[in-house]
Structure formats: C-alpha cells, structure tokens
Design goal:
Shape: globular
Number of helices: 24
Strand content: 5-15%
Structural class: alpha/beta
Largest sheet: 5 strands, mixed
Number of strands: 11
Bound molecules: iron/sulfur cluster
Strand order of the largest sheet: 1-3-2-4-5
Radius of gyration: 22 Å
C-alpha cells in the first residue's frame, strides 16, 4: 500500500465524501460561532481532511483547526446526509499523532499521563488522596493567599479553585463491589466508576450506586474495570484506547448484568462506540458490540426503573446544561429533564441552546483555555437569562466548567452547579419494602452503603 493510500485509510478519507458542503452544520458549531472562520467549522475541517488525504496540503495544516475542534458532535446531529464527523475527527487525530515528531520530554509526559496515570486505579486514588490532603489541611487556602496557585501551568489554578471537596481516603475505600436492590429487584446492572469520577467526584458515584439500588437495581461494581479510554481516543492514541476497552469488556463480560451503567456523558459516549475501535478484528468487534448494546446512561436506567419518588421539596428555578456527548452521541435528551421534573418544588426553565457545548470538552478547556472561555461566556449569558439558582449537568467536565462560569460571573452566592444524580439524592428519594404483602415507603436517610462482597 502506498504511503498516500495508508494516509487515506488513517484519515477515514472515504467518509469525507458524505459531506455535500451544504453548510447546515455551521450555525450549530460553537467554534464557528466564536472564531468565525471556515477552517473552524465542520465543513471546513472535513474539506481540509479531504485535501490532506489527496496530498494537496500537508498533514500539519490540519493540526490547528482540529485541535480547536471541541469534538462535541453537534454538527453530526444536524447534518442531513449523516456525515460521521466523529470518525473523521478521530482518524485525523490519530494520523497527526502517528506523524508527529515529538521531543523526548513530550514523549515522557504523554506516556505518564495516558499510559500510567489514567489507566491506573492506584494512581487515580493517589491523586484523590493528594487533593483531599491539600483541601483538608488548609494548604489550598494558604497557597491561594500567598499567590502560589497562580504559578500553576495551563491555568490549572482556575480549575483547582472550583474542584468539589474530595471525600477522605477512608470514605472512598468503602466502595462496595456489590449492592443489593433496596426496592424489589427489577434489574441487575454493572456500574462504570470512571477514573476522574471515582477519585474527584466520588460522592456522585456513591449517590449513583445508592440511587440505582433505591430504584430497584442490584448493582455490581467490578474491581478490574479501568478508564474508558475517551481521552486517549480523542488525542489519537488509538492503541491504548483499544487496550483499555478490552479490559472493560472483559471486566463486565464476567458479571451477567442486564445493563452497564455510567454517570458521565463523555465516558458514556466512548463506551457507546467501543465497536468503532475494532473494525479490523472480528472477535473483539463482536464482543465490543455486545458491550455497547448494554451500555446506558444512568438517567436512562432510572427512567426505565420508573420507581423514584421524593420526600423533600427543592423550591428553586433549575436549568439544565446538557452534556454534548450524552446528547449528540448517545442521543439521550428526554430522560435527564424528565427526572428533574419529578423533584417536588422544582421550577424548570429551559436554557436557550441548552444542548450546545459549554467549552469543557475533555481537556479542551485546559489546552485551549482562552477559546474555551469565549464559549463559556456565551453559555453563561444564556444561563443567566433563565434566572436559575441551580444549573444541572450530567458530566464531570461540564460540571467544573459551569462552576468556573459561575465564578467568572461572580454569582457564587446565588447560583450553583450540580450533577443530576446529586440533586435527585438531595430530594431524599424513597425506597419501598414489601413485608407480608404490604408495601411500605421509607425515606432514604443518607446512610453509608455497606460493603457487601459477592
Ligand atoms: S457536514 Fe453535513 S451539514 Fe455540514 S456541510 Fe457537510 S453535509 Fe452539510
Ligand atoms: S464537533 Fe463541535 S466544534 Fe467540532 S466541528 Fe463539530 S460542531 Fe464544531
């Protein structure tokens, strides 16, 4: 195969012909809205990939336009010819990664982040412990007071300031690997803990497991699962993404569950496309497809269980910032809003363009900070128009980004951002027990879940 043929294959060049250049996707693209250039639109990016595949421009010309793409996939939802933009983007990112001449320092950094840190539960746990220690001992306040945080690279100080309080190592070590259904069992589900979710957003994971159990699911949490591989795939590191996918497929094949549940829109989108990773491998492609068929967002499963009732009123105006990967890849739009509206007292107000990316997009807001803030500022304008006191999201990245937006707007005293699951838990769900044919409804008192090993 000639090198140009090989490049065409890497770039998913054939898929670029599905684009008929109509431009319907332009108004849906956040980077076209803020940057205003064709090369930062879906149509422009697809054209550049096509030209690179034909050897009319060098591969490097693709780098900036593709690195500035959020990967939000809003263009895919509106495209009348069903262009598979996600596959074109991932193919091009992979080709760029393969053809990049990286310095030794960059190779070591990438190896540390992508191969050592994210796939390792031990390392993610260590990060969680270090964050807890930093927050709990007063180090965080001291570092802020003497201006140390402003020395952090890549604007990390901005994100450090909006991180949630991380539970103690003792609290986090209580994660069970099995929890029985508190209400009469309707389903057996597996739970994807995620890497960042399990260390920094541990409380949301704990609430997810509890809520599933309250709604009537028996929950299995396999200890051998790992990071979903989304950050790897979006950075063109397809080999590592495949390895991580195989580990997760194996971990859940042994559980005999009806569904595999996640609570992070970005991770869920990756899990929903595991079969794309194994196009040339029949055996793993079949196993991945079986995994994909059972993979669901927690809002879908809770809606399916259809048993949630709440005892506490939340008398607030609430709006919803959708995760783009939940909306545009997993196509889940109705369930999160329907669950929200079950909470007594809530006044739901829809935000204009609620399904448009907030600029978080994995690590986009870290590596493209200024561009991301332009997108966030537009988002916050629309959030403010709702006068909501609570902005609900379904993904950790969106949650941090909305917290950052609230801080930038100086609204910390009147507005908060929360994960959907945490708000449902705050409304004190009821679980039902059947004794001698009588059903009694008991409010959930927030008790810690028990360690029940299968
Ligand atoms: S990606 Fe779809 S919507 Fe956008 S220009 Fe191409 S065909 Fe039209
Ligand atoms: S994925 Fe999002 S940012 Fe990228 S081209 Fe499509 S709409 Fe624009």
């Amino acid at each position: 195969m000639s090198s140009l043929e090989k490049l065409k294959r890497q770039l998913n060049y054939d898929k670029t012909f599905d684009c008929v250049q109509c431009g319907y996707c332009l108004p849906a693209c956040p980077t076209y809205e803020t940057m205003g250039e064709e090369k930062h639109s879906p149509r422009g990016r697809i054209n550049l990939v096509k030209m690179a595949g034909e050897g009319r421009i060098g591969l490097e010309t693709l780098r900036e336009p593709l690195e500035k793409c959020l990967g939000c996939r809003a263009c895919q939802t509106v495209c009348p010819t069903n262009v598979q933009y996600g596959e074109i983007l991932e193919g091009a990112k992979h080709a760029l990664d393969q053809n990049d001449t990286k310095s030794r320092a960059r190779q070591i950094t990438e190896d540390l982040i992508f191969n050592k840190l994210f796939p390792s539960r031990r390392w993610m746990n260590t990060i969680g412990n270090a964050t807890w220690f930093y927050q709990k001992t007063g180090l965080q306040k001291l570092a802020g007071r003497i201006g140390l945080t402003s020395l952090a690279p890549l604007n990390l100080d901005k994100f450090e300031a909006v991180l949630p309080a991380v539970p103690s190592p003792m609290e986090r070590s209580k994660t069970p690997n099995f929890l029985e259904a508190r209400t009469n069992k309707k389903l057996r589900v597996g739970f994807i803990t995620g890497c960042v979710m399990d260390s920094v957003f541990h409380q949301t994971n704990k609430n997810t497991i509890e809520l599933l159990s309250i709604a009537g699911a028996e929950v299995v949490i396999p200890g051998s699962q790992t990071c979903c591989g989304a950050l790897h795939a979006h950075s063109g590191k397809m080999e590592t993404a495949r390895e991580l996918a195989k580990r997760n497929i194996l971990a859940f094949e042994q559980t005999d569950v009806d569904y595999i549940v996640n609570n992070a829109g970005g991770c869920g989108a990756m899990l929903a496309e595991y079969h794309h990773l194994f196009k040339d491998d029949e055996e793993w492609s079949t196993r991945a497809q079986r995994f994909v068929n059972r993979s669901k967002d927690v809002s879908v499963i809770l809606s399916m269980l259809d048993g949630l009732e709440f005892t506490k009123e939340i008398n607030e105006v609430v709006t919803y910032q959708a995760s783009c990967h939940l909306t545009h890849v997993q196509k889940v739009t109705i369930e999160p809003k329907a669950l929200l509206q079950k909470i007594p007292g809530i006044r739901y107000k829809e935000m204009k363009d609620y399904d448009r990316c907030c600029g978080s997009a994995g690590i986009y807001n870290i590596v493209n900070y200024e561009d991301s803030m332009d997108i966030l500022d537009l988002k916050m304008e629309k959030a403010k128009q709702t006068s909501a006191a609570t902005i609900v999201t379904t993904n950790p990245g969106c949650l941090l980004q909305m917290q950052l937006g609230i801080k930038r707007e100086d609204l910390e005293d009147s507005v908060r951002a929360v994960h959907l699951i945490d708000l449902l838990m705050e409304a004190r769900p009821v679980f039902k027990r059947e004794t001698n044919g009588q059903i009694s409804a008991l409010p959930f008192e927030g008790q810690a879940y028990e360690l029940m090993n299968e």
